[in-house]
Amino acid sequence: xxxxxxxxxxxxxxxxxxxxxxxxxxxxxxxxxxxxxxxxxxxxxxxxxxxxxxxxxxxxxxxxxxxxxxxxxxxxxxxxxxxxxxxxxxxxxxxxxxxxxxxxxxxxxxxxxxxxxxxxxxxxxxxxxxxxxxxxxxxxxxxxxxxxxxxxxxxxxxxxxxxxxxxxxxxxxxxxxxxxxxxxxxxxxxxxxxxxxxxxxxxxxxxxxxxxxxxxxxxxxxxxxxxxxxxxxxxxxxxxxxxxxxxxxxxxxxxxxxxxxxxxx
Length: 265
Fold this sequence. Notes:
The protein has seven helices and ten strands. It has helices at 60-68, 100-110, 115-128, 144-156, 174-191, 202-208, 239-252, and strands at 2-5, 16-29, 32-45, 49-53, 75-79, 85-88, 162-166, 194-198, 211-216, 221-227. The strands form two sheets. A seven-stranded mixed sheet has the order 1-10-9-4-8-7-6, with helices on both faces. A three-stranded antiparallel sheet has the order 3-2-5, with helices on one face. The relative contact order is 0.20.
């Protein structure tokens, strides 16, 4: 892992999927103004897998909501170009009265997919998340990991080029989480997606990311960025992942100013 610099950087390449410049977000609660994010400037390249780590309350989810367009910035600019954006949350939030296939069908309908094409698309999406036999099941019949796979299929139904993920695997057990890491990485590579993934888990960030943004609180800002130069595919138990996670933890707690390279044997 290589430290880029102590403050956020702006990429110089033309292949930018998300450009954020001078982003500030303030909330006014009954006359008490709070600055959640201050002067964030960072670019995300097309096809990049970026993880955002930070302590609770540092503004990770607020930043993701702003990128998604769910909230408006107080100041600054977020430019996603013409890319379609999909967002996946910690909770699957499936409609419990609908089957798996009908949950996905609803997303396809809202995306304007013709009725004649939706059945084939549903089958394709379920195969993508390895749930081909679950089309007629309802959410209560599925495990937590299966529900999150349905949520991922529903997000992919929007044909997004940018996938935003807000701690989507935090509630899963370690074995299921590891399986979801593999699946997410495969889908990211196959579909050439740009992914921004929020997590409080430095091991998860080391497992998944090309680059990690380390956020500082009060107000929320990017305190450091680190490239993760480990070869893929990776495993959560790899020595390189463990060493990278330890260095990210040091960065998170402000204990390192420089980082050496690392490789995965």
